[in-house]
Amino acid sequence: MRHIGVGFLATGMACFAQTTNDEIALAQLLNTPAALTRSLVSAGHTARLQHVMAKARRGEPITFAVIGGSITQGAKASKPDFRYGNLIADWWRQKFPKSKIGFVNAGIGATGSNYGALRAQRDLLAHQPDCVVVEYAVNDGPLEVCAQTLEGLVRQILAQPSQPAVLLVFMLHRHGGSAQDWHAKVGRHYGLPMLSWHDAVWPEIQAKRMTWEQISPDEVHPNDFGHRQVARYVTTFLDKVLAALPPDAQLPALAPPPQPLLTDLYEHTALAEAADLKPTANQGWTFDVTNKFWKSTQPGSTIEFPIPGRQVYFMYFRIKRAMGKAAVQLDDAPPKICDAWFDQTWGGYRVTDLIGTNLPPGPHRVSVKLLEEKNPGSDGHEFRILGLGAAGTQ
């Protein structure tokens, strides 16, 4: 396609991306009143968002943050400036030039809201964000347990003394799947604004007015146009909130978060990455100081770690290499077999496996034994332990 100009958000803010004829036609399709209406699942309660905007209007510094998976991290965006989070941060800078706008991208590829809830204090809340976009609808499954972990992440953010605003963004897989239905239950309970890339684009794909390939080069990740359009839906909503922003003296009162919808276990979490794990027993495992994981290649090797909590997670690395299997046992429960080999070639990722639920507070014992058995597709036994996590901690 012939390049004819500069792409821009609905706000008129240049994002310095070349735009094709195809993208202009696509933008016209996805910015009709019907598509814009579909993109807003719920405006929610905007009191927290109004207070953040008022703070920025006064010229006080604010921090905008995003947390999620590889889409948020920026996979398939051609440069960081074109990621949806960066573009939304640019909206804040344009609308509030007297305020210093900080930006935190807490996205980590191939991770769900379970790991998000475990790492929220370290990667997100330590930066004291004023407004947070949460994106996990494609990395989470359409399951209640995923709604539980999302709720825990939301509750952690809402509980901060600075009373941050939270928005949910729902993406989708190539074939239309997402965890939106379960995530939206959480969003409605907490009165969160919710925007949906799924609801905006999927009807157009089903009607064959556009194709998936126009917005994504793979199964999940939006291209530069997709990132711009996601940002456009969010900033269109923010524009409406800003247009109705009252004077400071008339700002609505902020209500405390309601009681949990599903559980508050994931409001209280602990994360021990591999470097933090102190074995109580070890035979045959070594710590890789450079790459920060516990490793063994010798079947029969065993290692044990203690951890408190009522829900316990075991984290390890999967990749298509010479990887093996391990039996992971929590206390005296039957062991779970974890396979570190898989058949995809796009790279490796962190697995965050729930290995114990509804437990007494602990402490608990996690033991790992490297097995002789391995996947037939693998020609080795290497296994990497990345960490342990727990929910329901005090």
Question: Could you please describe the fold and organization of this structure?
Answer:
- With 394 residues, this protein is an alpha+beta fold.
- It has 2 domains: 248 residues, Rossmann fold, CATH 3.40.50.1110; 124 residues, Jelly Rolls (Sandwich).
- Helices cover 28% and strands 27% of the residues.
- The protein has 10 helices and 19 strands.
- Strands 3-8-7-6-4-5 form a 6-stranded mixed beta sheet, sandwiched between helices.
- β6, α7 and β7 form a beta-alpha-beta unit.
- The longest helix has 20 residues.
- The radius of gyration is 22 Å and the shape is globular.
- The N terminus is likely disordered.
Q: What would you say about this model in short?
A:
The chain is an alpha+beta fold and 394 residues long.
Low-confidence stretches: 1-17
The CATH topology name of the largest domain reads: Rossmann fold
Percent range of helical residues: 25-40%
Strand count, sense and barrel status of the largest sheet are: 6 strands, mixed
How does the SSE layout of this entry go?
Layout: E1 3-8, E2 14-20, H1 21-30, H2 33-39, E3 40-42, H3 47-57, E4 62-68, H4 70-73, H5 84-95, E5 101-107, H6 113-123, E6 131-135, H7 144-158, E7 165-170, H8 180-189, E8 194-196, H9 197-206, H10 224-243, E9 269-273, E10 281-283, E11 286-288, E12 293-296, E13 302-307, E14 311-318, E15 325-330, E16 336-339, E17 349-356, E18 364-370, E19 383-391
Parallel strand pairs: 4-5, 4-6, 6-7, 7-8
Antiparallel strand pairs: 1-2, 3-8, 9-19, 10-13, 11-12, 12-19, 13-18, 14-17, 14-19, 15-16, 15-18
